[in-house]
């Protein structure tokens, strides 16, 4: 397996380079890694502070790691925080986030790059979030006896750690000082391969993160004007299949206000939404007009970054992605505001979605007909509506606290000092 891994890390940059000529995301992946080590030398040559390094694959993992970084920044302000990403979808959105002193791409995993990177950075503590496992980096961290924690880990039976050919992958787990996992199932699977002694259930730091976001959520005068005193359904991170399930109900209920936030906001996707929905206005145009035109009851969001705050205005939140293979997007961003949740049939990879359904805080629909029936029931049955919303908010509060458990471990083991 190590030979296949070496082949993978050798081929991946070459494939990305070829794709970069016509794939913008691949182009960002390649261009973002140019002169990496020269830039790192410039930054760390001047640094005389101990370093905490957190690595995230992409934006979702960053949202899980951020509460821990914020706690470290608050409790140990003299530490230098380095944040790395593998994917452009994380780096490009968060490259200027003030949570870290330096943010960059992670150089591709090879023996010499791992050694060179660690020689420059010299971290005192390393935090990997959820799914990222890079053999040479992990091995080099262990060789240097640097504390290494996994945050919000999830382990499933289909992962290679638990296969007959998984010895190479299990060796990566040996490199961690401690594995903080989200649930009992993950801990049980680690116990089956002999890792229970270095693992514990912390829960999912996303719950802490969405509570932070909700507490700091902004208000928007134009959104409030659009919503007025109407019932409001917000459809977040939608794909074409979601909009096709929604459009009939939306177009036939002008007495309800709808906010549609597509997952992608390229021009073709926005035009598709405008074709599916009637009586629409884009948010950018609403900002220009500064008032809602007569007859408009559908607002199409054509920017990024507002959705997590917008959910506060919802009566019902529809979570997109449930008609695609990857499943639904972040349901907790809406649940934290005590909102009933609705999403498509593909949600089985997400523990929170399953548990929200079990608590009757969320509902899954198979098609447009079920969606219309469910929306109608929630809007007309005040007891059902209130119960679902309260159950959603209570669930998020109950599951919070993962960050505190991780910080308690760091303090108890003196992994960072004041």
Q: Can you characterise this structure?
A:
There is one protein chain. It contains 20 helices and 14 strands. With 418 residues, the chain is an alpha/beta fold. It has two domains: 2-203 and 401-412, 3-Deoxy-D-manno-octulosonic-acid transferase, N-terminal domain (Rossmann fold); 217-399, Rossmann fold (3-Layer(aba) Sandwich), CATH 3.40.50.2000. α9 (184-192) links the parallel β6 and β7. α4 (59-75) crosses α5. The longest helix has 18 residues, at 2-19.
Helices and strands in order:
Blueprint: H1 2-19, H2 24-31, H3 36-45, E1 51-56, H4 59-75, E2 80-85, H5 88-94, E3 102-105, H6 111-121, E4 123-129, H7 135-143, E5 148-153, H8 167-174, E6 178-181, H9 184-192, E7 199-201, H10 205-215, H11 221-227, E8 232-238, H12 240-251, E9 257-262, H13 267-276, E10 280-282, H14 283-289, E11 298-300, H15 307-310, E12 316-319, H16 332-335, E13 341-343, H17 351-358, E14 362-364, H18 368-380, H19 382-399, H20 402-412
Parallel strand pairs: 1-2, 1-4, 2-3, 4-5, 5-6, 6-7, 8-9, 8-12, 9-11, 10-11, 12-13, 13-14
Helix pairs in contact: 1-2, 3-6, 4-5, 4-10, 4-20, 6-7, 12-13, 12-18
């Amino acid at each position: 397996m190590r030979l296949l891994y070496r082949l993978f890390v050798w081929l991946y940059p070459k494939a990305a380079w070829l794709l970069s000529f016509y794939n913008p995301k691949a182009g960002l992946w390649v261009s973002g890694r140019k002169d990496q080590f020269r830039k790192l030398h410039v930054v760390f040559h001047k640094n005389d502070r101990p370093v905490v390094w957190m690595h995230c694959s992409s934006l979702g993992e960053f949202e899980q790691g951020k509460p821990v970084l914020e706690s470290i920044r608050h409790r140990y302000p003299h530490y230098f925080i380095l944040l790395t990403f593998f994917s452009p979808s994380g780096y490009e959105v968060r490259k200027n986030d003030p949570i870290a002193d330096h943010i960059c791409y992670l150089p591709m995993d090879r023996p010499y790059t791992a050694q060179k990177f660690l020689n420059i950075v010299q971290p005192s503590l390393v935090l990997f979030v959820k799914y990222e496992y890079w053999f040479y980096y992990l091995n080099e961290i262990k060789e240097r006896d640097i504390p290494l924690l996994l945050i919000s880990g999830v382990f499933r039976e289909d992962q290679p750690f638990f296969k007959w050919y998984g010895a190479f992958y299990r060796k990566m787990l040996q490199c961690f000082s401690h594995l903080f996992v989200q649930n009992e199932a993950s801990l049980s699977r680690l116990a089956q391969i002999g890792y229970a002694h270095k693992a514990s259930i912390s829960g999912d730091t996303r719950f802490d993160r969405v509570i932070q976001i909700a507490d700091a959520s902004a208000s928007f005068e134009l959104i409030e004007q659009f919503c007025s005193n109407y019932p409001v359904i917000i459809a977040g991170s939608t794909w074409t299949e979601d909009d096709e399930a929604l459009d009939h109900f939306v177009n036939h209920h002008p007495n309800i206000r709808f906010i549609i936030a597509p997952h992608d906001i390229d021009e073709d996707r926005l035009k598709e939404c405008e074709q599916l929905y009637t009586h629409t206005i884009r948010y950018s145009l609403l900002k220009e007009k500064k008032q809602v035109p007569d007859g408009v009851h559908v607002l199409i969001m054509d920017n990024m970054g507002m959705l997590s705050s917008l959910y506060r205005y919802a009566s019902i939140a529809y979570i997109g992605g449930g008609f695609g293979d990857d499943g639904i997007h972040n349901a907790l961003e809406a649940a934290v505001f005590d909102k009933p949740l609705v999403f498509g049939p593909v949600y089985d990879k997400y523990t929170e979605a399953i548990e929200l359904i079990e608590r009757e805080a969320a509902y899954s629909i198979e098609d447009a007909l079920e969606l219309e029936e469910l929306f109608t029931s929630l809007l007309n049955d005040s007891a059902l509506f209130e119960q679902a919303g309260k159950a959603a908010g209570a669930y998020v509060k109950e599951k919070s606290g993962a960050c505190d458990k991780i910080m308690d471990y760091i303090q108890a083991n003196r992994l960072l000092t004041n």
